[in-house]
Write a structure and sequence with these properties.
With 150 residues, the chain is an all-alpha fold. It starts with 10 loop residues before the first helix and ends with a helix. Helix 2 (21-33) runs parallel beside helix 6 (126-149) and helix 4 (75-94) packs antiparallel against helix 5. It contains six helices and no strands. The relative contact order is 0.19. It has one domain. The protein has helices spanning 11-19, 21-33, 38-65, 75-94, 97-120, 126-149.
Length: 150
Amino acid sequence: MPDTSTLALPAPARILGPAGLIPFAGLALLAGALPDGRPVLLLLLQAYGATIAAFLGAVHWGFALRPAPGEERVAWARFGLGVVPALLAWVALLVPLRGGLVGLAAILAATAAVETLAARRGLVPAAYLRLRWVLSLGAGACLLLGAALA
């Protein structure tokens, strides 16, 4: 199994990953500052959160479609992790707004937690995992702020 602990993230991931927090922060802050626009802004926050949750699963489809030598044995788990966040995000769009926002924050954290377990087995690069936790905590905080405003 290759040592993924020393792999660095490419520059686009280091730049575009944190840039993905801009809509989370912008929508949550605007919802707090503009009470008249709050319902629409929170729906936009919920939709963006669901989109990102679905995107997280796509990462694992990529890993599964091109497994490193010896990682074929975890294909079902990888594909499962690729599907579950999107399905849960879809449910989070169908429940009342406050619950959906809290649910999306939980989905982001739970996905990062599962990825942490995978990283301990050498299946997820450490640099990716560090970025994922920073992004998940930032996005989750914005989603929870939105839930408090709902």
